[in-house]
Amino acid sequence: MTSSATTELAFSSATEKAFAATLAKYPNPRAALLPTLRLAQEEFGYLSVEAMEYVASRLDLPPSKVFQVATFYTMFFKRPHGRHHLEVCTSVPCCMMGGYEVLRHLRDRLGVEPGDVTPDGRFSYAEAECLAGCGHAPLLQVNSEYHEFLTPEKIDALLDSLE
Amino acid sequence: MERILSANWTVSGAHTRPVYEQRGGYQSLRKALSMDGAAIIDEVKRSNLRGRGGAGFPTGIKWGFLPRESDVPKYLAINADEGEPGTFKDRFIMELDPHRLLEGCLIAGWTLGLRAAYIYIRGEMKLGAQRLDAAIDELYAANLLGKRILGRDGFDFDIYVHRGAGAYVCGEETAMIESLEGKAGQPRLKPPFPAVVGLFGCPTVVNNVETIACLPTILERGGDWFAAAGSDKNGGPKLVQISGAVRRPGCYEAPSGVSLRDFIFSDEYGGGMRDGRKLKAVIPGGSSCPPLSADELDVGMDFDQMREKGTMFGTGGVIVIPDDVCLVRMAARTAHFYHHESCGQCTPCREGTGWVAKILDAIEAGHAKREDLDLLLEICDNVEGNTICPLGDAMAMPIRGYLKKFRADFEEHIAHGACRFPAW
User: Fold this and answer.
1) Of A58, A61, A111, nearest to B181 (Cα)?
2) What is residue A18's predicted lDDT score, i.e. its pLDDT?
3) Per CATH, which fold does B327-416 belong to?
4) Which residues in chain B have Cβ-Cβ distances shorter than 8 Å to A95?
5) Are B400 and B377 in contact (CB under 8 A)?
6) Which of A28, A93, A141 sits opposite B85 (nearest CB)?
7) B91 CB near a chain A CB, below 8 Å?
């Protein structure tokens, strides 16, 4: 892959260490693709074409294989998202337990549609399929943390607490 | 009732090795190391342990498909991709009692002569992944993982955590293997089955988190004890979950075969309906299971009794739907889920799940005709059984169930040209 040679993207030294540890877990580099895409997303914010090409070069894979995998999984972001990305479960049973009310409340509070980023870059939010928190509905996940049994007051307090 | 699988959930620090060991942890592994693999497989067969990821296949028999001798390494792949709506039990095990799962992996590794275990955990479950990683580090430090485990020559075993990245279909075992290999999670044609050609082309046994977490108890108390702790052919205590319009939603441990009615209404479990609402339908085992109506609750919660009722026990995720919720909308939401999660490689599933979702949306919006109900059933027939994996079936079965048991609700929408329930 030649285009990756011209890109300026590179892992930080901390990410390099994590990348080496990841490679050691698998008998071949291809198997490390999902965790390496996650490292790239954490490092670069989202998976731009350049970021995906960089991952391809690091694992010696054709970029097309990396694009295919990055677009298959919903947790890989192909465009920028907010500093805090909120995912609201609206699957069965959350749909009947207030999941859509949470989504509407976020739209009212943040003034943008799902998938879009607030002008200050602080927030984005999306509808998620089952987050395995059905007993604690309605719920959302942000920064890998679950917030459960949500009410409008709890959502407001949560938004205020996120810089 | 004595809690077994969830005994550590209320103990502070039980996710760490010192506390887990204080409470008897890793004694079952030591016992296993004094037995040969065949004797352990025999205990597991006697225990009537059945796969707790949804299919209910007897674990001992599944293990028997793995070749004894192999020139290449044999692997264990733990299915921790818990994503079936209504299901949230494995998350508790991994966050609160990760060593129970790891001890089970070690017992399976010794029993079956495996090289390593990969735990495929949902990408969303960061805390579970962190707790597992920390617990694995503790085990390497104590010679409970790595080379010559506890001084046993030839017992070399590693455990790795592999995080998914958001795809329900990766809960299907061959899609999970594809994903572990760094590919899109598209299920493989079978045969060959994973026991013969699995992860990295090697023989692989795939088991659910809760299934493997039962092994320390089976070793400790014996297969006969475990079998007696459940119902006929359904061994052991079971983690069952309840969500929806009940007073006490959550994950509970109950004997296999407990009555569904008791589970919903007893104060020990679901606590009955919340806010004076009335029960309309129950999904007994995760969203792919056909619903039961309010007069069908006197059934034991195990794989065989639920099948006799025309539904499934699945993952044991009970979803309670009250009568102020529109069932057409629930059916549509279910179809949209499976459409969203279809991997796209089989036409009947890729197209059929979308068509069903669109027709259900039209019924809900009051734009449908009576013939559309038959069209729905026809599409379900054309999806079911015509795909590589059961994801399409998982859409067809509940939709057909809603239509069979609650057809009047659908007809009312068509006759009135509208839904009488308030918007979500």
Assistant:
1) A61
2) 98
3) de novo design (two linked rop proteins) (1.20.1440)
4) 329-330, 333, 424
5) yes
6) A93
7) yes
Average pLDDT, chain A: 94
Residue range B294-349, pLDDT digits in tens: 999 999 999 999 999 999 999 999 999 999 999 999 999 999 999 999 999 999 99
Residue type, B182: G
Domain definitions of chain B by residue range: 7-228, 237-322, 327-416
Helices in chain A by DSSP H: which ranges? 3-6, 13-23, 33-44, 49-59, 63-72, 99-110, 152-161
Regions of chain B short of the pLDDT cut 70: none
Dist CA A119 CA A121 (whole Å): 5
Does the domain made of B237-322 have the CATH classification 3.10.20.600? Answer: yes
ipTM of the complex: 0.94
pLDDT of residue A8: 83
Yes or no, beta carbons of B245 and A92 under 8 Å apart: no
User: Chain A residues contacting B, CB < 8 Å?
Assistant: 25-28, 30-35, 37-38, 65, 68-69, 72-76, 87, 90-93, 95-97, 99-101, 129-137, 141, 144-145
Give the rounded percent of residues in chain B with a pLDDT score beyond 70.
Answer: 100
Q: Which two tokens stand for residue B220?
A: 């400790």
pLDDT at A2: 45
Reported as a pLDDT band with limits 50, 70 and 90, residue A7 is low
Q: How many helices (H) and strands (E) does chain A have?
A: 7, 4
Domains of chain A are: 3-72 (1.10.10), 84-161 (3.40.30.10)
CB contact under 8 Å between B249 and A133, yes or no, is: no
Find residues 146-185 of chain B whose CB sits inside 8 Å of chain A. 160, 162-168, 179-185
3-state secondary structure of B205: strand
Which residue is closest to A94 within chain B, CA to CA?
A: B244
CA distance to partner chain A, nearest, from residue B169 (Å) = 10
Q: Give the number of A-B residue pairs with CB atoms closer than 8 Å.
A: 144
Please, what CATH class does the domain formed by B7-228 belong to? alpha beta
Q: Three-class SS of residue A83?
A: coil
- Positive or negative, the CA dihedral A104, A110, A115, A116 is positive
